[in-house]
Amino acid sequence: MKNIAIIYHSAQGHTAHIATHVLQGAQGFPGVRAERIRAEDLARTPDDLLRYDGVILGSPTYLGGVSGPFKTFMDATGQLWKTQQLKNKLAAGFTVSSLPSGDKQSTLMSMWVFAMQHGMVWVGNPILPEQQVGVPYDEAANRLGSWSGLMAQAGHGAPADAFVPGDVKTARMFGRHFAETLQRLTDVATHQPTQEATA
Question: Which structural domain range is residue 128 located in?
Fold first, then answer.
């Protein structure tokens, strides 16, 4: 079994709701075990990251970046960075804001830089926007058109589960794609011939 951590901070419950659907998508793939972990909890025990083969990072977008608690988690991994213990693990990211754009791209880029500094391998979001093939906008996968990671939108002050069907569908597809990529890379590594065998 391969283990995935979905690490998130959620002040109003919106990011937690999307994290749940990402989790469901990842858990639906054979050979993968996934769990949600609050960034605040992991900030106290960052070495727990070593148990996972892949991490999916999730934060609301606040003023064009990750939230304060999520940044605290990122900073807490400094010792792991010094020893490069997260090198070659898979990583991906998702974010939620109350506007269709809301500078969510800046948040995903900060997660990407974090992953790159740790030597991790980033998994993007290859889902084509379905409104291009006639699916109604609110029902379309990747309706916000993000390829660097998953973006979702919840109206300001809306209930935690107030997402259009397309964003929920995208979250599940995103989680499954990450799990599938992790399994595929594992299979390639397992079946890679040794240097002696190919000499």
Answer: 2-198
pLDDT for 137-171, tens place per residue? 999 999 999 999 999 999 888 889 989 999 999 99
Domain count for the chain: 1
Which run of H or of E encompasses 50? none
Q: How many CA atoms lie within 13 A of 153 on its CB side?
A: 19
How far is 57 from 6, CA to CA, in rounded Å?
Answer: 6
Tokens of 148: 């660097």
Distances (CA, A) of 156 to 14, 16, 93, 95, 168: 10, 16, 22, 15, 17
The pLDDT value recorded for residue 193 is 58
pLDDT at 54: 97
